Amino acid sequence: MINVTINGKQIAVKKGTTVLKAAEKLNIKIPTLCYNPDLPAWASCGICVFKNVDPRTGRARMARACCTACSEGMTIITHDPDLVKARRTVLELILSNHPDDCLKCNRSGKCELQNLAIEFGLRENRFQKIILEQPTDDSYEVIVLDRKKCISCGSCVEACQHMQNVWALEYTGRGDKTIIGPIGETKLIDSPCVKCGQCAAHCPVGAITTHTPIELISDILADTEITSVASIAPSVRATLGEEFGLPIGTLTTGKIYSALRMLGFKHIFDTNFAADLTIMEEGTELVGRLTKGGALPMFTSCCPAWVDYAEKNLHDMLPNLSTAKSPQQMQGAITKTYFAQQIGVKADKIFHISIMPCTAKAWEARRDDSMISSGAKDVDMVLTTREFATLIRQAGIDFANLEDSQADSPIGPYTGAATIFGATGGVMEAALRTAHKLVTGNELGDVNYTPVRGLQGVKKAEVDLNGIKVKLAVVHQLSNVEKIIKEIKDAKANGQERPYDFIEVMACRGGCIAGGGQPYGATDEIRIKRASALYTDDETHEIRCSHNNPLITKIYADYFGEPNSEKAHHLLHTTYTKRNLYN
Prior knowledge:
Blueprint: E1 2-6, E2 9-13, H1 19-25, E3 49-53, E4 60-64, E5 75-77, H2 81-96, H3 112-119, E6 136-137, E7 143-146, H4 155-163, E8 170-172, E9 179-181, H5 198-202, E10 208-210, H6 217-222, E11 227-232, H7 253-263, E12 267-270, H8 271-292, E13 298-299, H9 304-313, H10 327-343, E14 350-356, H11 361-364, E15 381-384, H12 385-394, H13 416-419, H14 426-440, E16 458-465, E17 468-476, H15 481-493, E18 502-506, H16 524-539, H17 550-560, H18 566-572
Parallel strand pairs: 1-5, 11-12, 11-14, 13-18, 14-15, 17-18
Antiparallel strand pairs: 1-2, 3-4, 3-5, 6-7, 7-10, 8-9, 16-17
């Protein structure tokens, strides 16, 4: 521990603590713009300047709080007239190159630059307005790169390169000619981008945003010839409440069902049902590969950004991906076949909207022909959690005070295993609960498998399934995938036993609870609270294993026959294609 003085108050902090974090311990807020706790601090914007006072001379020099470590005996001033003036000047300079179309901006009300301008009471700008005309990249229609609004803070580049190891975004040019985007003026759709949306999640302004034409939904709901269906992803129930002022980690499942009914949807389902279905298909596939042969280790395939990454970067590992579709696509397929037959409606007369935490889900819905397995688009439109919140607000719904209701049967009710899909390690844990039953014939005694929980980048474990030793790994945040792939390839090259049998991969840190379409501002503290809500939902369910869901048993008895059957493969499984990094 070292001792420092901040604004006249003494405090002891751990060696290596930044001035920014030390000030937080005294409830002193130093303003930031380019800083994000997920990313390394690189002092780009200069908003967080403070004074470091020399105790011998009384002289002070300004430094940046986000990347300056405290030292023993340091005397720090975080706020005085000079610092306020310096910060105002920085803000004015940034705003002199930034458009003023806040009313039409996707980030209005949630823009960090806008919030700082309000905090500092900026009404006039001393500097000439110079907006560089740069093209908007909306080639991938869900993620929009509007370079005119870019403040060159580099948050998106850091997220893309170092969090995700994707390298779709880069700096081009210098000084006021700096452009952030795919190298060589490539379009996002033609770059290594995997559509994870972490660039948008970490951008402090409206330079990278997401967009779905929600204005079309009212016409769809009003069309009497269309049967409208909505389904929600596992993690959305643990995050949507934040958009309406509820505490972080509040479960709002029942309120979501009620809101969807008020919006006018005819049928309300839950993608958690399809998560249970996924476990049956993926678990059976894993057991088959372990006992009868097949490409091992087997990777999960629920995360479309991970699938996109693998198709572009890991061609030799594509046979190792589970062929099971994601819960979203399984839900779409059974909605337009199994359910459509029950209500006597053709697939093309059902409009299925999926509410997801993820920006890559829209790409997944049209990834290849297997996503039209029903004869029509299995999923017609994907809304992110943020967009769904906008839809609720514009309908005048008081979401926080809604009464709870239930999802519709027969493809709505779910087990506890399904809901934890939204947190890193959740797919693995849910799969183990069912794999144990499939291999041993017995239920797992304690269904809580905690070794795969938490925010450690790579989690490893081993389980014994009736004498079959299964080595597991759970990976979240794409930059961690390379470590696992290297272990696998090194073991094979050296003639060693394979290090893993089953690997779960989620592209985003923490899993879907912090996907690119979730409420802004995710930190590890927030991720933990969101995940905790899903585990609570799991624990409160009477049925906590996918194979014990009576409606899952029914859909196999009535429709599929058994997991991995011919019909199941047609509707619930997919294939993978080797693709280039750049088109």
